[in-house]
Predict the structure.
Amino acid sequence: MIPLRLNEDQFHYKGMIGVGGIGSGKFITLEGNHTLGREESRFGHFLDTRDYCKLHIISYYVRTLLGPSFKSVLIGKVGDDEIGRLITQEMEETGLDIRHVIASPGESTLFGICFTYPDGSGGNLTENHSACSKVDPNFVAQSETEFDRFAGQAVALAAPEVPLEARKYLLELGTKYNSFRVASFNSSEMMDILEIGILPLIDLLAINIEEAAAVCGRSTDHAAPSDIVDSAITKLCEQNRDMLISITAGKNGSWSWDGCDLIHHPAYETQVVSTAGAGDAYLAGVIVGLVAGLDFSQAAGLGSLVAALSVTSPHTIHPHIDRISLLDFAQRQAELPDAVEALLVDE
């Protein structure tokens, strides 16, 4: 895999320390594009698709696009089972630092069922009593030496699928050691984060339109995405005016808020195979862009590009995304920010 055209001395940060879900799952494609009803039974068939969880997805793309000079340290738990062993082996082969990923005796590795509709959209159902659910602040605290090692030069990533308390503690460590603090949450957690005082610990919040709607107590069914985005940003900024915010909305593109300007980024045209993992690919692209020294809007453009290419794969990690594949994909697009193009083209 060929990383972006960057030298190590151009990195604005030297490493990423992240906590979040590590696991796998299975995909089933449903018949019919209408949304699955609460009491509906519907036929479908399982796909030969590789599924991964959020911390793994984000870290994979960051490692692939920035190369071995940028260190990615993962904190998490898997089960002492075959799935856990296979995933940790894959992460190690990718070059991720898994010294703080342990196999938890007697627990199962996080596993989910991802469902997709014929149009490529979908969702997932994930178990909540896995090894990941045992990640707590005490476990995260054992990795404090990593924050000290990268003091002032780390991205601290708090990704879903482990308890909120563990993620909050990681962000507190990031604050203590002057890290750039990044977080994402799922829809069911959005009201909780408004209550537990976690938003002031975040420098970049990455959510999707469903999660933005949950912040406002609204539904996406009969509201324009831009209206939801405006309402969510207003609500979130009540607790942290200095926080960068990115909100993705699939084919409707994404929005980036830097504290002053709200910029809409149209989605790139692409052939959608599966949207699963696209939001994580987007966040990885944004992180990569910020590490590379892009401003937030430019980094969001890179995130959009990575996400657009990611959905052309049936897997939640596109196994062939690197500088060359991104460049080839980008050259078929109408526009590409100059700063993003400079990271992709040969000298």
